[in-house]
Fold:
Amino acid sequence: MQDKIIYRHWQPGDDDAVLELLLPAGQVDENIYRDKFEGPHLEPEGIRLALVNEKVVGHVLGESCSFFIEDKCQRFVTVGAVFVAQDMRRQGIAARLMQDLPAHFQRKGYRGSILDADEAAAIRLYQKVGYQQFTQDLQTQLPPNQSASQLKWAETNLSDLSALPELDERWGKQNFPVSCDRENLKVQQPNMGGYRVLRQGQNIVGYARWDEPSEYYQHGLIRDPIAPDVDPMEVIASLQSAIPTIRTWQTAEGGRYEAPLRSCGCTFEPTATVIMLSSFGQEIDLTGYHRTAWW
Structure:
């Protein structure tokens, strides 16, 4: 007789059993996981578990995040660390965990759920439980061009950080997904070295996630710049004048920069990363929104 599978949310004392499942698979960082409830974005109901004889055999993590959509900032649940023990697969455990997760967030008035996937089997699973693909990440190689630009890219200073949430808000009126979580800003003092700001004179008119060339990114990596009031062609020209060698640019299919980059002769390669969305209640209408690289 097969042992019964118990489904429930996380409870105090579960961490060791969860980490026994997730750590060997490289799904989480142990220290971060144990500190997961210190911030405002995770609560016990956001972790769904499957157990057999008190052993954790399945796990899914849902965290709160806010995005601009439908002219306002709304809460979503971002989903990750979906994992089932190797010997317990093909029993519908992952699907059940994914189906159980939204209930808590729906009761709290969340607008939907969002996730990224990079494997065909995972994409099929998420489609089965109600997610739809709405964009895919693309990459292109941007060549340098030393023509003069009135816009200048510069390292981010601590005094620059207060200007960035307003840029997000304006960008979010036409692009999705764009974070608007002011309780947990994505650019803060510890990580601001990974970003660059775009200046027009003394004014900050944009910023971008900016990884220099490394063993991970041979040509570096620049994600879609958030520059709501700047023509995309001007942004492209400013980047070309700022880079000494070819840089990889990551954008999204249907994004604001896709057509302008193509007009400059750039060609795109799809990445494995697909972004998927599930609405809670009324379907989310993305008509008129550009997709943007989710970083």
About this structure: The mean pLDDT is 93. The longest helix spans residues 232-242. The chain has eight helices and 14 strands.
